[in-house]
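Researcher: We're teaching a course module on how sequence relates to structure. For the next exercise, students receive a sequence and then see the predicted structure as tokens, so they can try to spot secondary structure elements on their own. Here is the exercise chain.
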Amino acid sequence: MQTQFPYHDTESAPDAAVPSLQQAEQRFGMLPNLMRKMATAPALLDAYLALGDLFEQTSLSPAEQQVVLLTVSRENRCEYCVGAHSVLADMAEVPKEVTDALRDGQPLPDLRLEALSRFTAAVVEARGWVGEAEMDAFLAAGYGPWQALEVVLGVGMKTLSNYTNHIAGTELDDLFQHRAWDAGTGGSA
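Model: And here is the predicted structure for the students to work with:
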């Protein structure tokens, strides 16, 4: 799949993708392999970056956002995104025991974050047809109805990247290798 989905840079990418690649490189201080692959379809890259900006504006804290993104990525068995978001969770000061529990599919030591993760997993697994019990548990943990819909935004954003990585065979960037994850074992690679 490497030849069908190359790792683009600003020289090789379609013209329409160049501004988004430049924006991504400026924002992240590097050009992540995910975005280099997404540049094959400039509209996808634009959509992913726009949804990421919108998700950052939700009422969920940066740590809660990473719980959502890691949960979606684990549910979708996306090795690239679990590895990358483990590093981003570390940068967002998510406690390592929370991130490691997410990676391992274990209950989180923080009950509120556990409720968020369970609700997010239910959204992914049920494709949005979340049961009353899951919604009640989410609300009982102190989240509001608007936050259930903010989770949907995070699920949509991460689904774009998870599926891109699956189809395009995106390799984990060197920067994220120390947090590599193996979907087959559910643990560190």
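Model: If you want an answer key for the exercise: The chain has a mean pLDDT of 95. DSSP finds nine helices and two strands in the chain.
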